[in-house]
Amino acid sequence: MTVERAARLVRTERAGTTERRGVADLPFRFADRDLVETIVAERAEPAWLRAERLAAFDAFDALATEPNRLYTPYIDLRPAELMDVRPYVQTAAASSAAGNSGAAEVSADADGLIELLADGVTAIGLSSAANSAGVVLETLGGALARDPEGTRALLEGGQGLPTNDKFAQLSRAFWTQGIVLRIPAGVRLEKPIVLRWRVGAPERALLTRTLILVGDDAAASLLEELSPGGPEIACAAGETVPQALFTGTMEVSLGRGANLSVASIQDLGPRQIAFLHRRAEVGPSASLHWALAQIGGRFVRSRVDNRLVGDGASVEQVEIVFGDASQLFDLTSYTTHIGRNTSGNLLSKGALKDAARAFMKGLITIEKSAVGTDSFLGEFGMNLSKTARAVAIPSLEIDQPDCRRAAHSSSVGPIDELQLFYLESRGIDPDDARKFIVLGFLEPVVARVPMADAQDRLRELLEAKWASRVADASAA
């Protein structure tokens, strides 16, 4: 029995029998070789893609759910109950909306929009400026049909995903929907491109990949939105709505001198399970900015891999969590410095109430070639109730002593009483003072969202979570 299988066990009732699941046991059973063959056959995919999917499945089947021994005590897949979910096989490659000609579907404050609803595509469009600059925005299925060899070069071998991550290989093997965005060299977009996923049908699984390619000296910003595909489903007393699964990768490649900012607002429904993986290869003198907000979902497992391969490459990453009820957020950040004079500034923050939990795990690796590295990793948790729990595990692996800086910091605790005293001494109501402190704690991501209406929406989501806390306290 492996260490993972020997971890704490839980009994779950299913079909009249009692099953035992360890904290690291997979919560689904659809991922098998037969599903690969079904996807390939029903989608009439080429032989090379079948081989690619099978290689990914073999890797998925062989990998542990948590490859890093430092993090194995901090994995818990038990909130996910996905034994009966059915993955989508056939998905749309183009928009079904009338008049899908591009610019008419894009708002004045964006340069592009793609919206995907479960297995369908509701909108794809580019502004006239982006279209004339040669920007390409399409589904992964559409890219495969339009440019088979170019798409093969992107997918074959799985070079955009880490080979040691089980859930990344899951998406590589079983994806049936995806997005491809290409920004040509020298193109600098002034407005963001919006990538909108609307998902959550009970007992369905949508497995996706997103590929972002930014050419030399190009610049762009993205706004990713993950939200429910419809209103919450009501059910009879004593019954529960089955869960849904969403897996998504974002595979980013930045050329020399490129600049990319990515903001993500995740507000999935309360029965949604999500496995999210973002990986970036950052070229010479290129810069990448992540601003990630995790608010919704029953269980969210998010991993970010930054590889600073070019000299002078840089990354700035901020990820926040605001959890309530029994939500569980599992966040992992890996940053690898390879080029000379690279820099990284990574920050994770979690505010938790009720019985919510968050694991914030991070590793900075400085390879021998990474002379002159400047890197910082900070992880901070704020527990708003006695039953909330945050765990922060920052770590460093340094093979090159000639660094400008290599540091990490972490803390977990309640709201600072001195901050409360300061605000209350100036006549601010105690509940308002707590609200100001918590929302200010999470503001670093809000301020980095590129569209004003999206910033407002994120602030509304955060305030709504705080308001539910106040309402619960009043009811008690």
Protein architecture, described:
By secondary structure, the chain is α/β, with parallel strands linked by helices. It has two domains: 9-74, no CATH class; 86-234 and 241-417, no CATH class. It contains nine helices and 22 strands. The protein has helices spanning 33-42, 47-62, 128-132, 140-146, 148-155, 166-174, 417-424, 430-446, 452-475; strands at 9-14, 17-22, 86-87, 112-117, 120-126, 136-139, 177-183, 193-199, 204-214, 219-228, 244-254, 259-266, 272-282, 287-294, 299-308, 314-323, 328-337, 343-352, 357-366, 374-383, 389-398, 405-413. The strands form three sheets. Strands 3, 6, 7, 9, 11, 13, 15, 17, 19 and 21 form a ten-stranded mixed sheet that branches. Strand 4 and strand 5 form a beta hairpin. Helix 1 (33-42) runs antiparallel to helix 2 (47-62) and helix 8 packs antiparallel against helix 9. It is globular and about 70 Å long. Mean pLDDT is 91; it is low at 1-18 and 98-104.
